[in-house]
Input
Amino acid sequence: RRKRAEPCLSSVVFNVFHLDPRPAVDENADFGSPPMTSANLTPPVSHVALIGNFPPRKCGIATFTADLREALATTDSDLKISTVAVTDEGQRHAYPPAVGYEISQHEADDYAAAADHINALNPDAVSIQHEFGIFGGQAGEYLLKLTERLRAPIVTTLHTVLVNPTPDQRRVMETLAEHSARLVVMTEMGRTILTRDWNFPAEKIAVIPHGIPDVPFLDPAFQKHSFGFDGRKVALTFGLLSPNKGIENMIDALPDLARAHPDLVYVVLGATHPHLVAREGEAYRDKLQAQADAL
Output
């Protein structure tokens, strides 16, 4: 289902690019792009290329990219959208016709080839969904082989914003930011981290909330009853389970939270991430269960 907040990204794609597709970087100054004026805005965008994971790959970013594509198409039915999917190692996905090109995650040469493919399509803008783990190389550095070759302006949506990156993560993120005309984050805290800890210019950053599925409202009391949670306060973590979501921290905090809120119940809902299952089976889920049982 289309996510309610994501059509806002179309305003970024359509309105924020400058005539110079790659803002010049002065080594002695903060990088970034000049203030927007009527003189340096591009004409309306008629063709956008999207880069990210894509269904049927089981991944939150795949769902996000598909929802973004649908939202952009809904915003402007005349917009041409070219989609490039990143395929995980050892997998073959039956992508829908919307996907016109694939990148094999750990094949470095695929990224330069994809850039040549996108340049041949000549889009007005390129939107990249970024997460360090979905691109090949150290900290996803293979993506830079693509971005350094692109001619169109790049809008990069950051699905992870780190406070304490590794040296490789810092190197990759700083270069990706240099290559990008705009960075999109999903929270004000994300913007704060980028300006405070990364020294990225605020005018280069747009905040667009993640959004949720636009479904009819249902009475929470009815839903709680169906799960046996009548009269309880419910805290919920949902989606693919993996160690980077802080579930362990929440379980550790439950005794203190339950003393303050005796009616609290914490629900962890979702399948284990398929990559994690491939490496270690359900060991992570079993670990969480054991941690909860030990409280």
